[in-house]
Structure formats: structure tokens, C-alpha cells
Amino acid sequence: MKTIGKLYLLPVPLGPDANPKEVLPETVERSVEFIDHYIVENEKTARRFIKAILPTKKQPDLKLSVLNKRTEAHEYDDFLKPCFEGFNVGLMSEAGCPGVADPGAAVVKLAHEKGIQVVPLVGPSSILLAMMTSGMNGQSFAFNGYLPIDKGEKKNALKNYERLSNEKSQSQLFIETPYRNNKLIEDILQILQPSTHLCIACDITLPTEYIKTKTVAQWKKEKPDLHNRPSIFIIHKF
């Protein structure tokens, strides 16, 4: 009986300025050493990461399939075909852990349905790292993804998260497209109550890392410039 390859979930650094040797365990490097088939969001950055973590890896041996918002669902089967030929496959996000706020979740689901073993490897998750450093409720929290773009819908979403945090004692996390960060901060400070706590976690694990938790009233006195900087926002009304 032919051996079925495994699907390895390979974490990557949270930004191009992070040294992979400092934020990733040796198990990731060892896995890259024996995996030649990859599912990635961007081929160029994936090759750059592989070269950084294992310079001896021969780039011509790599077989990369691209999974992004333009990928059709019917293509997922092809991504996992190497597993049924006995090869292991690595799934990589553009930043952080695959499958979390990431299109790779659909491939992981398919792997389970096809009986392919899924192997998660340890690495940086901006969601968990932000939660760890926020000082908010790590026993109960919710990641809500991106806020609505429409101004009215965004206001309603923020007020709803504030209400939920208070009623359920549940920290509420969300993100924004980096070039909209500064506008989001303005909206948060206008919409939420002065006593609500806000954690801003920016450039996590990078040399420019910035993480602070303050009340909305306190943030109004010090608004950081987060333009084009990957950030996580957490609110909690105690």
C-alpha cells in the first residue's frame, strides 16, 4: 500500500524584517529540508523565506502552487495530489500561521476530508501574541477579522464589539488594511466610550514593534502613526 504524504502547516515570520531563526523553532527548518511541494500565497516571498531559513535548499527543486483570493475552489484538489503520490506538502501563509485568518484553511479542511494527516508546526501568531501582551481577558476572546468599510456599518460593528466585551467579559480583536489604520484609530476614538480599553499591537516581533494598552480617553492624548504597518486592535469595556 502506497504511503500518503502529510500536509505540514509551516509558520513564517510576521514581516520581512524579522529573522526567521529568531522567531521559528528548528522543526520548521528541518521540515523545509525534506519538503519540496508547497502551497503558498505569493511565490516570490515564499522562495525568499525558504532561502532565508535554509540557504542550502535547491530552489529549482521547489514546486510551488499559489493559493490566494483569486484561486478557484476546484484547484484545491490539485494542490494535494502530491500527497497521494507519497510526497509531503507544506502550506505557508504570507505572514504568521497558515489557516488562521488565511485562505489556507480551505485546503486544510479538504485534507481532512481526504484522509490526509495535517501536521501543525509552532510559529508566531499575531492574534495570540497581541492577546498575550494586551492585559485583557485571555480566557475569553474573539477574533472578528476585518471591520466593514462602510462608515455606518463600521460604527455599528465597533459599538457591538464594545457591548459584547462588556456583557460577556470577552476581549474583541479585529484588524484593518494597513493603509487604513490611522483612519480606524480616529473612528475608534470617536465611537467608543472613554473608559473602554484599547490595545494596539503593531509590527509584532519586528524591530519596530509597538504594543500598548490604554483607555480610549488616554489614547486621545497620544495617537500613534500606524500607516502601512500591520496591526491588531483589541477592545474591552470592563
TrEMBL record:
Keyword Protein biosynthesis: no
Listed GO MF terms: methyltransferase activity
Keywords assigned: Cytoplasm, Methyltransferase, rRNA processing, S-adenosyl-L-methionine, Transferase
Classification via InterPro entries: 4pyrrol_Mease, 4pyrrol_Methylase_sf, 4pyrrole_Mease_sub1, 4pyrrole_Mease_sub2, rRNA_ssu_MeTfrase_I
Pfam short name (any one): TP_methylase
Domain of life the protein comes from: Bacteria
GO-annotated biological processes: methylation
Domain Tetrapyrrole methylase: 68-217
CDD domains given in the database record: RsmI_like
Name the UniProt record assigns to this protein: SAM-dependent methyltransferase
